Amino acid sequence: MARGKKAVKELTPEEKLQQALVPVEEQPYPIPENWCWVRLSSLSVVISKGTTPVGGKNAYVDEGINFLRVENINEDGNISHDGIAHITESLHTGCLKRSILLERDILISIAGTLGKTGIVRKIDLPLNTNQAIAFVRLSFHEINELYIKNAIDCPMLQKYLLDKTKVTSIPNLTLEIVGNCPIPFPPLPEQHRIVSRIESLFAKLGEAKEKAQAVVDGFELRKSAILHKAFTGELTERWRKEHGVGLESWKRCTVGSVCNDVKVGIVIKPSQYYTDKNEGTPAFRSANVREYRIDDFDWVYLNEDGMVNNKRSIVHTGDVLVVRSGNPGTACVVSEKFDGYNAIDILIAVPNQELILPNYLCLFTNSPLGKQSVTEGKRGMALVHFNVKGYSKVQLNVPPISEQEKIIHTLNEFLGKEQQAKEAAEAVLSQIDTMKKAILARAFRGEL
């Protein structure tokens, strides 16, 4: 041993932890007595970040070493290999050597998207990463890396990190901020139990999410299927047998032949309506027309100039409004509430109710068959736009009024139930992330 130099005693893991305890006044919240608050840096042998290869995207190759970017970190913390970039072996072991990742490394996004976490698995190797991702390499094996990853995901620690964000042109976290992050640290057996419990609960939430997403994703398919059956006669086949009516009672008609009028609402100039006052004559725009309903908001109010020669644009109860551009074919029926309003650049169909019911025409127009007919020949245009002549020529199958009533009733009942199911599924989806955060919050308070 060189003279004058003293041997440095290597600290045990317990001694390292003791030195790294977070002072009481800096502890984010109370934890169980057998836990302690420590800095993430005290649990780590390396906290570093990736490097951008010289040349940026030009440095990528078709095959080679996996090169990680934030978008490759999945919601569950696993690394997606779909669309992952690659770099050469020489780049990996050369100028990017310091950002070579190892199995069990904990990943944290630190630029742009902040606080997203992941863990490197054996199947991900060999792997390197860019400067938007920090990695934490734990200092000893008596730590469950999934515990640390989940701890960083919990709402309180995410808030700690985000509150420390350095605001530049791109929000970012420094390695110092990451290293100073306080971690609630229980004994190893309890770490394992917490991770196991989180995984079990998250698995159940994952199943619920899949089922809810399947309901949402299948909504349009189920809706399209029943609408197709409705307007081809299949939906009311049993009804016709019960009433001794054949499919020959249906007539192939054009929209124009079953309507008393098909017209287009006025096209006005800004000088023809009030912009600051809710006075004058209210008028619909395309934004107010939704499938089967009118959105009662943000009206245009016509002034006297805008009212000149606008009689043809006045709508009445039972008229069918059809959007011309943007989302062409979207239709609704005018209810009594909106009788006497005006329509701006919207098609107005006035059904002959001895031949076709307004709701039947509206349901058909909103159906895949109707929308396909409305937009036929318009594909490829920057803005699909159709006119009175085009809508009047649209062909549809028209059954007797009594069968139209049956179709309307059946569709409204079915679509109502499907809409309720979709909304319930969407509510579940919106709650899952909140439930995950609640689970993590309890887990890292020792309450799980």
What does this structure look like?
The chain has 448 residues and is an alpha+beta fold. A hairpin with a 1-residue loop joins β5 and β6. α6 runs antiparallel to α12. The chain is elongated and about 100 Å long.
**For the CA atoms, what is the radius of gyration?**
32 Å
Broad structural category? alpha+beta
Count of β-strands: 21
Instruction: Please tally the helical runs, counting DSSP H or I stretches of 4 or more residues.
Output: 12
Q: Report the mean per-residue pLDDT as an integer.
A: 87
Give a quick rundown of the structure.
The protein is α+β, with helices and mostly antiparallel strands. It has helices at 13-19, 89-93, 145-153, 155-163, 175-180, 188-232, 237-242, 304-307, 358-366, 368-375, 388-392, 401-443, and strands at 36-39, 44-49, 65-68, 85-87, 106-111, 113-119, 127-129, 133-138, 182-185, 251-254, 259-264, 273-274, 281-284, 289-290, 293-294, 300-302, 320-322, 331-333, 342-343, 347-351, 395-398. Mean pLDDT is 87; it is low at 1-5 and 379-384.
List keywords for this structure.
448 residues, alpha+beta, four-stranded antiparallel sheet, 12 helices, 21 strands, 35% helix, elongated, disordered N terminus
Write the layout of secondary structure elements.
Layout: H1 13-19, E1 36-39, E2 44-49, E3 65-68, E4 85-87, H2 89-93, E5 106-111, E6 113-119, E7 127-129, E8 133-138, H3 145-153, H4 155-163, H5 175-180, E9 182-185, H6 188-232, H7 237-242, E10 251-254, E11 259-264, E12 273-274, E13 281-284, E14 289-290, E15 293-294, E16 300-302, H8 304-307, E17 320-322, E18 331-333, E19 342-343, E20 347-351, H9 358-366, H10 368-375, H11 388-392, E21 395-398, H12 401-443
Parallel strand pairs: 3-7, 13-19
Antiparallel strand pairs: 1-9, 2-8, 3-4, 5-6, 5-8, 10-21, 11-20, 12-16, 13-16, 14-15, 17-18, 17-20
Helix pairs in contact: 6-12
